[in-house]
Amino acid sequence: MSQSKTNSAPTPAETEALEETIAYLAKRHRVSQAIVREIARKLGSSPERSAIEREIARGKSRR
Fold first, then answer.
1. Is the N end or the C end of the chain the one with fewer CB atoms within 10 Å?
2. Cα(31)–Cα(34) distance, integer angstroms
3. Domain tally for the chain?
4. Could you tell me which residues belong to the region Disordered (predicted)?
5. Which residue segment(s) compose the domain that 25 sits in?
6. Can you state the angle between helices 12-29 and 49-62, rounded to 10 degrees?
């Protein structure tokens, strides 16, 4: 059985909301937006803010 993936592009509203969240988290945790974007990409399509914050905290503890 083959499974087909449907790659639906995020709507502009979803993209804008994600970018606002990324900017907020980057400023709050004093990391670059690129780092927050990479964490969000690693976590999946629409990660929750708390999941991104946990990953940022894990990264900071490694420093």
1. N
2. 8
3. 1
4. 44-63
5. 12-62
6. 30
